[in-house]
Every structure is written in C-alpha cells, then in structure tokens.
Amino acid sequence: MKIIAGAEDYLLQGNNKRGVLLIHGFTGTPAEMRLLGDYLHQEGYTVLGVRLPGHGTTPEELNEMQWPQWYVAAQNACQRLLNQCEEVMVVGLSMGGLLTMKLAAEMPISKAAILAAPIFVTDKRAKFVPILKHFIKTVPKGKRAYDVDEKYKITYSRMPLKALASMFDLLKLCKQIILPQIHIPCLVIQSTAERTVQSRSAQYIYDHLGSKQKKLVWYKHSGHILTLDCEREAIFKQISKFFAKS
To answer: Rounded to an integer, what distance in angstroms lies between the CA atom of residue 39 and that of residue 24?
Structure first.
C-alpha cells in the first residue's frame, strides 16, 4: 500500500547516546510528532518516529489491522533504537500512549511520556463500537484547527470502526493489567480543554502506575493533539526536562 507523502517513518541521528521513540495516535501519522522530534533532536537526542501499520495509507487498510500489529511495530522501532543508543525513552500520543505503556512494562526503556492517552473517552457512542463495526466500516471524524503547517497534520478524515474496536481492547488491557506493571519513571500530560479523552484518564493513569517516580502535568488550552496545539512549546520543554533529569 502506498504511503502518503510525509507520513513515513523518520530517523533523526543525534550527537549523544540517548534515543527517543515517538509513537503517534490512532488515524494519525509520525508527522504529528515531528515538531517534538525536531525539538528533541536539537538537544542531541537520536529520534525515531514510527509509522504504525495501516496509518498514512488508507482508512480501509487501517480497518484490517489489530492492536498487536501496532505493538509489534512499536517494539521493533524501540529495539532499533536500543541497538544503537545506550538509553532509550518513549513518547506516545493518544493510542501511542497506550502502546508506550505496554513498552514501558515489557521493554528495557528508561523513561516514558504519556500524552493524552485514553482510559475514558468523551464520545458516548464508543460503547456501541463492538456492535457497529459489523455494520458500518467508517464514521466521520471531528476536526480541530491547529496553527501549524499542513505537513504536520496528515491524518484520516474518517474513523475505521473495526480498528477502533481493537484499540479499545488495547485500552482495556492497559487499564486492567499493564499500568501496575510499569516501574520506570513516567510523565503523564493531559489537557483539560480537549474533547476526545476525558481528562480523568490522566489521573487514573497516574494513580495506577506502578512507578515510584511519576509526574502528572495539566494544560488548559490544548486540543487532543498536544504536539500541534498552542501549548506545544511548553509541553516539549516539560518532556525534555523530565528526560534530562537523572
């Protein structure tokens, strides 16, 4: 399947021995993480932005994917960094945050940043997705304007329901099993203004992490894609400071 121009993986080679894996959200692409990647790269990190299977191609292809395929892609990307860096950290946005949780529990990474990860979602139709997926292939997505170049906003305009149901399976796994198994330092970031994930998700994640070293930071003006919205620079600095702390 042909990849949309600008939606490819990227590797930004750094000048130190620390690497950061960036994992985008459901229906998104590595492009939505690129501004963060450039910021961290300027600080010397080697940065890898991974494209998850079914993303950056077509909604139809995404509908053929399940969460274990996304996780294998994230695992492989993480291992790629581990092979060349002495220390690896991971940043995940939304569904990428769920994948980050599983990596944090199972892979030898040193720190993790979990951005706008869903435990509770705002759309009341979500509970019907396991049934609707058998009758409806996709539904239109809501859209928020982000004041950045279009090249960072490569995403689908429709939500594939079969794949979405699989994402909810991953959510349940993280909520019920994975969170207490995480023991590395974790940064949890959430906006109280967004309309996709209920903000209490971040508090739940923070409260149930097995980590002794953890931090929860709130923002008040951003939408769901924290890496593209008005508070992104402050968020980038927050992530960088957390990763730099010994």
So the answer is: 16
Pairwise CA distance, residues 40 & 49, whole Å: 12
**pTM, rounded to two decimals:** 0.97
The 8-class DSSP code of residue 31 comes to G
Per residue of the chain (246 residues), what is the pLDDT tens digit? Answer: 899 999 999 999 998 899 999 999 999 999 999 999 999 999 999 999 999 999 999 999 999 999 999 999 999 999 999 999 999 999 999 999 999 999 999 999 999 999 999 999 998 888 888 888 999 999 998 878 899 999 999 999 999 999 999 999 999 999 999 999 999 999 999 999 999 999 999 999 999 999 999 999 999 999 999 999 999 999 999 999 999 987
The tokens describing 239, both together, are 């992530």
> Within a 10 A sphere around the Cβ of 207, how many other Cβ atoms?
11
E strands in the chain: 10-12, 18-23, 46-50, 87-93, 111-115, 138-140, 158-160, 186-191, 214-219
Q: How far is CA 81 from CA 17, 30, 46, 146, 183, in A?
A: 10, 16, 8, 30, 20
The separation between the first and the last C-alpha atoms of the chain, rounded to the nearest angstrom, is 43
Which residues does residue 121 pair with via DSSP β-bridges, in sequence order? 197
The angle subtended at Cα 160 by Cα 54 and Cα 230, nearest 5°, is 80
